[in-house]
Amino acid sequence: MLHDSTTMGLPLVQGFAIPLEGLLPLLVTTVVFVVLGLLVFCVTFLIINKALPFSVRKELEEDQNIALAIVIGSVILGTALIIAAAIHG
C-alpha cells in the first residue's frame, strides 16, 4: 500500500488511489457520448430501413435472412468505429 502524502484522504482500491474530484465531469462526458452514439445508431438503422426496398424486420424475423443480419451488423460496427475514433480524437 502507498502511504505518502499524495494518497492521504483518497479511497484505496486494491492499492490504487482513486481521485474523486474529476469523476463527475467524466461521468457527464460518458453519458453524453453514450446518448449521441445511440442516436447515431438509431438514425443509421432508420436510414437502412428506408433505403432498402423490402421490410428489414420481415426479412430478419420471419425469413431468418442471415446475410442481411451480417450486413446490418457490419454497418453498425463500422459506425461504432467511426464514433469511437471521433471520441478518442
Structure description:
- The chain is mainly α and 89 residues long.
- The protein has one domain.
- Helix 1 runs antiparallel to helix 3.
- The longest helix is centred in the middle third of the chain and has 29 residues.
- The chain is elongated and about 55 Å long.
- The model has no long low-confidence stretch (mean pLDDT 80).
Number of domains: 1
Largest sheet: 2 strands, antiparallel
- Count of DSSP strands: 2
Structural class, from helix and strand content? mainly alpha
Report the average pLDDT across residues. Answer: 80
Shape: elongated
Spell out the helices and strands N to C: EEHHH
Poorly predicted runs: none
Residue fraction in strands = under 5%
Total helices: the number is 3
Distance between the termini: 35 Å
How much helix, percentage-wise, in residues? Answer: 55-70%
Strand order of the largest sheet: 1-2
